[in-house]
Amino acid sequence: MTSLVASTAGNASSAPVISTAFGLRIFTGLLGVLLAVLVSGFNENVTKVAMPDVRGAMGIGYDESTWLLAVYSATSISAMAFAPWCAATFSLRRFTLCAIGAFLLLGILCPFAPNVDVLLLLRTLQGFAGGALPPMLMSVALRFLPPGIRLYGLGSYALTATFGPSFGTPLSAWWVEYAGWQWAFWQIIPLGLLSMACVAWGLPQDPLRLERFKQFDWRGLLLGLPGLIMLVLALELGQRLNWFESPMISFFIVGGTALMVLFFINEWSHPLPFFKLQLLKIRNLAHALLTLGGVLFVLLAVIKIPSGYLTQVQGYRPLETAPVMLLVALPQLIALPLVVALCNLRWVDCRWVLAIGLALLALACGIGSQVTSIWNRENFYGVQAIQIIAQPMAVIPLLMLATGGLNPADGPFASAWFNTVKGFSAVAASSVLGVLTLNREHFHSTMLLDRLGNSPLVSTGTDLARRVHQQAVVLTSADLYLYMAALALLLIVLIPFGPTRIYAPGTPVGAVK
Questions:
Q1: Is the N or the C terminus of the chain less surrounded, counting Cβ atoms within 10 Å?
Q2: Quick one: pLDDT at residue 46?
């Protein structure tokens, strides 16, 4: 795959892009963008965990707090769709620095918000800034890294899907336990400033390309931005408001879907679109995007299931569940480069790597489905240990399939597709997982109470209700693990019918076979 340049199809007079040989400065710039993306993800996790403390300190009600979390997710995902166009227009370095700076400034201001409305505005704007960063990481890796090591750069992007979520939960617990509630917002400052310094020194400065505004897709922006926001808000708030029983959620779903349909119709024929629908004709990219949604579902579940079980059944505090998450997170720093090195071998078919990774995820979930009410933190270590190698083996091949064999001009479009699908799938998976959890808990609670009937019991009242709830959580956790195992196996079945053989960049055969 050739180097990615910040140009787009349909733009006849593109300005020249500065070519810079890979070296210490480019590596530093890539590291800076990676830190910024990880900090953005940590920020969302920390504020979720710390929200009860934030509510108490700022006098915020529960309903308002759900909106604070929802608007951040909605604007963050929406920004992923449009950030590649902005980076190509204003230059990657300039746009990344502005996004990081705005992200930090808004985070500093959040604890000083005089009321919930101001805080809601700050979090909305911060979501836009934070969501603009993940596409920049993929763009830097594709554009500046030479073919022989480009896959390692994409491996750094994979950290945002494997290391980031697993490490974010323990980090959240630490800030909540040992620091003031303000640091739920301020914990982004040290690494954020470091990332700005790395980006400023490491990435070259491209010229402005303001002539692209002559073909700016105003109709696409006015349709796609509110459409995405409405759909994400519906997914984030739907369960609390009972889905279609709420007129607002119904409006968000129907209106958001209609806007997105009109958005894609517009994108099909626009000369300089945000999304290039024609790219979905590429089998590898289409399969990677479809599989990505399923993989993110599984990865999210294997984080939430043990955390929820240990909290509700064994009474663990968030900090006490941290070792379970860290067991997966920290080894990723070693496992990811090893998987990249494996996929970089010409004789290794990344489709087999993907299949083995999914099979290992299914195995881990199958073992987890044996959970009982006496399991504690140590019982999950075996399940988590399998995921150390399974997670990168499921993600790295998808990055290869999504980016391999693309024309240079299609790079920004592929980045927009991959990052938007990644963000939206994570929210959709969280929503579906929440619905499944609630329904299965209700089902098992009902079945347990029916079986008890009029049987004589030693425990009654509150103690009985607690025991029934705990057992329902255990059975629900087992069900969810089985669902995830089945989903992982289903994704394996799709592999023979989807992607074609792709070789790592820099190998003698560098295209689809």
A1: C
A2: 72
Compute the average pLDDT of residues 308-321. 85
Q: What's the CATH class of domain 276-506+509-513?
A: mainly alpha
Per DSSP, the three-state class of 372 is: coil
- pLDDT for residue 8: 37
User: CA 505 to CA 400: how far, in whole Å?
Assistant: 9
- Alpha carbons 254 and 27: distance in angstroms, whole number: 45
Phi/psi at 499 (5° precision) = -75, 155
Short-list 219, 52, 225, CA closest to 127: 225
The pLDDT-based confidence of 475 (bands split at 50, 70, 90) is very high
Nearest to 166 by CA among 33, 299, 296, 69: 299
- DSSP symbol at 2: P
State the Cα–Cα distance between residues 52 and 166, nearest whole angstrom: 21
Q: CA dihedral in degrees (483, 488, 492, 494; nearest 10)? A: 60
| Alpha carbons 156 and 177: distance in angstroms, whole number | 29
Q: Number of helices and strands (H, E) in the chain?
A: 18, 0
Residue 480 amino acid letter: L
Distance in Å from the first CA to the final CA of the chain: 13
Write the CB contacts of 90 (distance below 8 Å, at least 6 apart in sequence). Answer: 98, 208, 209
What is d(CA 401, CA 385) in angstroms, rounded to the nearest whole number?
26
